[in-house]
Specification:
By secondary structure, the chain is α/β, with parallel strands linked by helices. Helix content is about 45%, strand content about 15%. The strands form 2 sheets. The chain has a 6-stranded mixed sheet, sandwiched between helices. Strands 2-1-3-4 form a 4-stranded parallel sheet, sandwiched between helices. Helix 12 links the parallel strand 9 and strand 10. Helix 1 runs parallel beside helix 4.
């Protein structure tokens, strides 16, 4: 068995996936503080029911984990309890799935009481069905990636206590929801339209928020840098202001537990008048990321809202003409650079035009 290095050193991670590139999973691991040392990918019509990948690939993963001195396996899908248990037994090192990894990153990023409560709720909801027969990864509390956060101390308790805690968190979040509703009502009384920034994680939403409002929002080149919404006033054109709110970034295969747990925050999207979809135009899979955002918006019931699309990071794209072409063929879209300010004046004008259209429709 591979010796475990403990929580004080960077964990060495072996990635496992089915039918896909693992670049995004690798970035998630780096965001969680781990180091990817290798990967195993298998082409399958669907994952193997018992072990996620076939027996030959399991043995390959076990050998590779030993040779690379891996501490942890991270799988690019949500595993069933049986898959996690069986795979961990066969590769002989802890195994976590994509959902656990994302929850771990959220646990690291949460700063406010609300954010911590939402992460804890998502963690406990995920773990509740996985208490029976839990393996090494379930018991390595505080041992590294996938084990951090306010919910970790609950994992060794019984289902009844966890359910009580979940019920308590939901009551607290209901208070948050009511408080947010009152805050939104107060903002409504200002008569200003609300524009919600949405987009794939690390698309540059916080950078754009800062560029448009000088909000001073934390803007980092890492996944899920923003968990808690920030609201600031923005002048679109002289005499026309709006309220701009930043939100958590979306992701492919975003765990349903997170969508449910962060509903109090995501209500900012549901209650907005206009959505400003920020797209990282420098990504090779830009259109897949846009589809992932659309899927989450659809789940929130917000896909039919008026939307402005900002193709961001024009300063670093390989083919600027192509991005400009995307913007021209997308309704209400602009190619911009939030970092350099390129195109932001025209973006403000586009947003102002959308606000005018809203006001006109409300008048009839």
């Amino acid at each position: 068995m591979v010796p475990h290095r403990g929580a004080t050193q960077e964990e060495r991670v072996l990635l496992i996936g089915v039918n896909g590139h693992l670049d995004e999973l690798a970035e998630l691991v780096r965001s969680a503080g781990g180091r990817v040392v290798g990967s195993v990918v298998q082409r399958l019509d669907r994952p193997v029911a018992a072990t996620y990948i076939g027996q030959g690939k399991v043995q390959e993963a076990r050998t590779l984990a030993w040779e690379l001195e891996a501490d942890l396996v991270v799988v690019d899908d949500e595993l069933t309890p049986a898959q996690a248990r069986n795979l961990e037994k066969l590769v002989e090192i802890p195994v976590i799935d994509r959902t656990q990894l994302i929850l771990d990153i959220f646990a690291q990023r949460a700063r406010t009481k609300e954010g911590k409560l939402q992460v804890e709720l998502a963690q406990l909801t995920y773990q509740l069905t996985r208490l029976a027969g839990r393996g090494t990864a379930m018991s390595r509390l505080g041992g590294g990636i996938g084990t951090r956060g306010p919910g970790e101390t609950q994992l060794e308790t019984d289902r009844r206590r966890i359910r009580r805690r979940i019920a308590g968190i939901r009551r607290e979040l209901e208070e948050v929801r009511r408080t947010r509703a009152l805050q939104r009502e107060g903002r409504r009384r200002t008569g200003l339209p609300v524009i919600a920034l949405v987009g794939y994680t690390n698309a540059g939403k916080s950078t754009l928020m800062n560029a448009l409002t000088r909000a001073g929002v934390l803007a980092e080149n890492r996944l899920f840098a923003t968990l808690d919404p920030t609201v600031r006033r923005v002048t679109l054109v002289p005499g026309k202001d709006a309220l701009l709110t930043d939100t958590v970034g979306f992701l492919r295969k975003l765990p349903h537990q997170l969508v449910a747990a962060f509903r109090a925050t995501l209500e900012e999207v549901q209650e907005a008048d206009i959505l400003l979809h920020v797209v990282d135009a420098s990504q090779p899979d830009v259109h897949e990321q846009m589809e992932a955002v659309a899927a989450v918006l659809d789940e929130l019931g917000a896909l039919d809202k008026p939307m402005v699309t900002a193709y961001n990071k024009l300063d670093i794209v390989a083919d600027r003409a192509q991005v400009e072409s995307w913007a021209q063929s997308t309704p209400n879209a602009m190619a911009i650079s939030a970092k350099t300010g390129l195109g932001l004046d025209r973006l403000r004008e586009l947003l102002a035009a959308q606000v005018d259209a809203l006001e006109e429709s409300a008048a009839f």
